[in-house]
Amino acid sequence: MIRRILQLIFLPLFIPLKILYADILAIQSATILYTWYRNRKEFDEVGRTCEEDHSNKKTWEVWLEDAEDYQADCQKRNQPFLKIIVKPKPLLRWLNEQGLANNSGNREHYAQAVFQEICEAGIQTPRTFSKKKSQLTVFESTE
Fold first, then answer.
1. What's phi and psi for 126, nearest 5 deg?
2. What is the DSSP letter of 39?
3. Residue 139's pLDDT is what?
4. How many domains does the chain have?
5. How many other C-beta atoms are found inside a 10 Å radius of the C-beta of residue 110?
6. Are both 46 and 89 inside the same structural domain?
7. What is the pLDDT of residue 134?
8. Is residue 59 located within the same domain as residue 121?
9. Rounded CA gap, 26 and 34, in Å?
10. Pair 12, 23 in one domain
11. Is 76 in the same domain as 126?
């Protein structure tokens, strides 16, 4: 009887906390898709046709440092971090086919499209599989 009374008293607090906690868990388990460049040449080639404000453009060194810092941060939080390798020709072809400008938002859409295509096609694990490597998966568009 006392337990039931306590439940009724604390119910108005329990429901909002449960909803808030569920939102926090959903954020923590989200997979991060990160557009990844293999080298300066490919980074610069994508940047040449970029239609963003020039003051927002990063150098290869700044981009790489930011990307590696973000990757390390995700690892500390045990958050899945997936590198989507961006090759200039397939990216620019996709943007052209979609009628989109080359900017960071549309490159994110490209990463999502590549990831969706990979998920639909299936993923084959490498011959040697380790827990450490499984946290950092690299997907590369084949073109």
1. -65, 165
2. S
3. 52
4. 2
5. 23
6. yes
7. 44
8. yes
9. 19
10. yes
11. yes
Tens of pLDDT along the chain (143 residues) come to 676 665 656 556 555 555 555 554 455 567 788 889 999 999 999 988 888 766 567 889 999 999 999 999 988 988 888 888 989 999 999 999 999 999 989 999 999 998 888 888 876 655 554 555 444 445 555 44
Q: From the CA atom positions of the chain, what is the Rg in Å?
A: 21
**Same domain as 121, residue 108:** yes
Q: What is the pLDDT of residue 136?
A: 46
For residues 42 and 101, membership in a common domain is answered with yes
CA distance 62 to 47: 13
CB atoms within 10 A of CB 14: 11
The full DSSP string for 46-63 is HHHT--S-GGGPPPHHHH
Q: Are 115 and 139 in contact (CB under 8 A)?
A: yes
The one-character DSSP state at 76 is H
Same-domain status, 94 and 131: yes
Residues 72 and 124 grouped into a single domain: yes
Show the tokens assigned to 93: 């072809």
- The boundaries of the domain holding residue 69 are 31-140
